[in-house]
Design brief:
A: six-stranded parallel sheet; B: 213 residues; mainly alpha; 0% strand; disordered C terminus
Chain lengths: 375, 213
Amino acid sequence: MDERRLKESFERVGAHGDEVALFFYSHLFLGHPEVRDMFPISMSEQRDRLLNALGRIVSDVGNLDSLVPFLKDLGRDHRKFGVAPEHYPAVGASLLAALTHFSGSAWNAELAADWAAAYGVIAEVMTGAAAEDERNPPWWDGAIVGHERRTCDIAVLKVSTRQPMPYLPGQSVALEYERRPRLWRLFSMANAPRLDGTLDFHVRIIDGGQVTGALVHDPGIGSAVRLGPPVGAMRIDTRSDRPIVMAAGSTGLAPLKAMLEHLAAGQTSGRREPPPTHLIVGARAAAELYDVADLEKMAARWPWLTVTPAVSAEKTQRAERGTVADVLARLGTWRDHDAYVCGSSAMVAATTSRLEALGTPPERIFVEDFGWSES
Amino acid sequence: MYPDRLTPEFVQSVHFPSARLGRRGLDEARVQAFCEWVESELVRLLNERTALEEEVWRLRERVRETDTVRPEDGHVQAVYILSRAQQTADKYVANAQEYSRDIAEDARRRREDILAEAKMRASVILDEAHASATHAVVEHTAGVLSAPVLSSEPLSTEQRQELETELTYLRTFSNVCRTHLRAYLESLTRSIDEWEHADQTAGRGARSAGRSI
């Protein structure tokens, strides 16, 4: 397998962009119509994902330390779509067909052998990781058991899973909702694991979004959901003695709330009191501070916790005026703190750079970027 | 003495020497007849071969013309057709999403306008109520100041009556205030209902338009 030849070949084929992925999926579905049902109606997002993953794989082909964990995650992650080992050769054949087609006269036996070998390795690592993961279910079946609409755009959902799903507070899951099949969206668990196994999710409407609107307006109690395996690396370091500052933008609060509950649970299970923790929770308008009542109860119960709401777009007596970053800067320096930041991309970027400017070392700033943008 | 290939010309030019005297030779006429038959046969075969060569050439040409269509090309055509269908579906979904995003953004704007207006109206109503209440208190104070109300003496029947009148007035005033607010809230609810109804009608229109496509 010649690394340079492979990269050159992918560059040539990749120049055709979306067409390549389009050809690949059409080829796959014609040969294996039963696979089509694993995908949503619109395939545009899916094609972007495929091209990104292929690009990542090809650019990392000489760097196995980075590539193998990526492929393992990918392999495990594909279990929730119902992907089985027997699907891999079909995908390989269609991938080769697409590469052949878009390589034109540049395609030859050597390239065919290179790509076949490369795909062989990819499939082996992915199926291997999926097989190692067999002790966990490929997904968790659940149902919506609670729906509380807190604002026009935000609801808190309670989900109960048939089998308990172990996770670490701060993690997220991909969720598929029965009325929006094949559309998986990431949400963070907003609570530490409970005895009854129920999970809270804070859902905010993304305008034009196919899933969030339905979940916030009227998801239907009892509606089925599927949860993929918990993902995400943000978790609270319970061994750290440093004080903690948490910055939440809108529903970015969810994983931070779960971590707060986790801190409190550590205390009740006999450990010392958690370090002083300051949560700043931000919104544009006071009416969008959807969880303040609950947070205030938590702060009243746990003396180590301080909660400061921040509102950026209007004057109100219920909150500090300004963005989360502004309010952070006004309240202190946070130089000795562990910082956890979660919210929209813009909020995370602004807050992180402000914290760094205030002297918090970058390696102690932990971030979860939700990807959505504040409208 | 013979050429590489047998040709009709050669057969024609063959000369058989005469048989020696005293020996019976070949029947010259029979030899001649044979040669004629060989010649005609060869001509027929050569013509046939030329025709076959032409046929082969013609077929080769046809194969060359259609050489760009390889066996798997039927599949490639199918892939293209499916791809176009998929793109059409993608476009419909994208359009629907864009439409719903526009509606959501519009609704948010209108919601914010309505809320802002409601806040303003509420503060006007409150201001009015506050002004009237202050006025009432001023009048009341003026009324009782003429009487020794600050003394520790118990209130006279007259004073009590006056205060009760005042109290009744305030109760009435608060009722009026509530009625005002309620009426305003109801008109708000009505306009929201109308809006919702209009939206649903528009939604139905859009859906039936969608079906007719």
